[in-house]
Amino acid sequence: MTTVVIGGGLAGITAAVALASAGEDVTLLEAKPRLGGATMSFDRDGLIVDTGQHVFLRCCTAYRGLLDRLGMTAHAPIQPRFDVTVLSPSGRARLRRAKMPAPLHLGTALARYHVLSPAERIKVTRAALAFRQVDPEDPEADATRLGDWMTARGQSEHTRRALWDLFTIATLNVPGDDASLALAAKVVRTGLLEDAPAADIGVPALPLGDLHGTAGRRKLESLGASVRVSAKVESIQVTGPSKYIVRLARSDEAIEADKVVLAVPHEAAAKLIPAGALPDGQVSAWSGLGAAPIVNLHVIYDRKVMDAPFAAAVDSPAQWVFDRTRISGMHARGDDGQYLAVSLSAADFCVDTSVAELRERFVPALAEVLPAAGDASVREFFVTRERRATFRQVPGCGRLRPPAATGLPGLVLAGSWTDTGWPDTMESAVRSGLNAVRALRNPEAPPSAARGVSELTPEFVSTAEHEEVRS
């Protein structure tokens, strides 16, 4: 049986590794010159730059399982306990979980979070408890705007900006008030309320190109899979039951396949999926998922200005700031300063802003929350823009996300935009690849069964999913 996986992002790498590990003849096709999809790196004058900053949580068991399979777990450490420095013009705060069971583990952190008033902190507790009653699978929750739900539960605009937005904007990539309640509930319940260690943060210690793309190719080739980059697919033709021809663009080459995993963004998938694979209107409905941008500002100072590995910012246009000095190889090129990356999600407000204007706005903003930056000189300032970083995770998006299985035997979908039950994240991408493998193995199973990663390919999931964590 020959399987062609189209797309070399995390979803495609995951599916290809799982299938090749089972002994299948796998060919992975990627249109770009390297694997990794949206998680890529490039060299800029001796500086290794990730196109966008990515982190993960301890609850991201499928993603951690992929790292295990790629032999990269040691290069993606997780903090021993959820601990976030919060910067603001008025000073610093800290959110750190206590050694207590959920949901009490964050009580001390909230009680000491002086950015909010005592009255606001009490109301936050009530809203958190209300989140436990929201079912992320409920169509009504999918249709509800998060800001409306928050306002109805006493969350002031200041509370939403100074606390809830720290988590929802970074994970959902839309302005906090505009997000889908269902996806926000998934974030809050899974990450913050149901298991104390779930929100512990992992930050890659290698450039993403090495962590995912290089390691993914090495693993696949060790399993005997064929990996082809700069191989853009032009069409998928159905030639019989479970028989396909995948044609490549800019050549006459055609690859015969018994199975096809279509693991590309939804806009590309809509152009490639054969007629009859899905009910009329379903493919065109994918356009409703849209796209949301992320902008990353890369600021190199002549000295150290931030002592935390990463920090969140409130009452500031900056959102999350990461120290990338070591990971970028900056000191190896003879530069003794500090390299900070500012990750701006829900970045419609600045995706088309010039570099000069961004510098004029954000360098002073960083100095407001990092006093040492006020005395430092900026040696370099450049910008990377991910215009289509995620789909728009707004009310109603859940009903547009398709399952892995299609109406054509042997043809399945993968991608963080498919129906994984998770927001559009690295975890969702990996889960979608596993869902695709499960749909190939058991096409008669209902789509909802694909939500349990352990039941899909238990040998693939990180052993961390089954650990008893005491921290």
Describe this structure in words.
- The structure is a single chain.
- This protein has 3 domains: 187 residues, 3-Layer(bba) Sandwich (FAD/NAD(P)-binding domain), CATH 3.50.50.60; 104 residues; 99 residues, Polyamine Oxidase, Chain A, domain 2 (Alpha-Beta Complex), CATH 3.90.660.10.
- The chain is of the alpha/beta class and 471 residues long.
- It is globular, with a radius of gyration of 22 Å.
- It has a 7-stranded mixed beta sheet, with helices on both faces. Strands 9-2-1-13-19 form a 5-stranded parallel beta sheet.
- It is built from 14 helices and 19 strands.
- The longest helix has 16 residues.
- The C terminus is likely disordered.
- Biggest sheet statistics: 7 strands, mixed
> CA-to-CA gap between the ends?
46 Å
Q: Considering DSSP H and I runs of 4 or more, what fraction of the residues is helical?
A: 25-40%
Q: Name the poorly predicted regions.
A: 462-471
Rounded Rg: 22 Å
CATH top-level class of the largest domain: Alpha Beta
Q: Tell me the overall shape.
A: globular
CATH topology of the largest domain: FAD/NAD(P)-binding domain
User: Mean pLDDT, nearest integer?
Assistant: 93
Record the strand order, biggest sheet: 7-6-15-16-17-14-18
